[in-house]
Amino acid sequence: MTMKKGTWKCIILSCYKTEPLPESENQALKHTSFRRRSLSEVSNPSSPLSIEDLSNSFAGPKLHIFAFAELRTITQSFSRSNLLGEGGFGPVYKGFVDDKLRPGLAAQPVAVKSLDLDGLQGHKEWMAEIIFLGQLRHQHLVKLIGYCSEEDQRLLVYEYMPRGSLENQLFRRYSAALPWSARMKIALGAAKGLAFLHETDPPVIYRDFKSSNILLDSDYIAKLSDFGLAKDGPDGEETHVTTRVMGTQGYAAPEYVMTGHLTTMSDVYSFGVVLIELLTGRRSMDDTRPGRDQNIVEWARPLLKDLNKLDRIIDPRLEGQYSSSGAQKAAALAYKCLSHHPKPRPTMSYVVKVLESLQDFDDTFLAPFVYIVPNENGSKKCFGREEGIKSEGAKDASEEIGHHRTSHRHPRGWRHRIKLPVSRIGYSDSAVYENIENGFSSPENPGN
Question: Locate the Protein kinase domain: which residues (predicted)?
Answer without folding.
Answer: 78-366
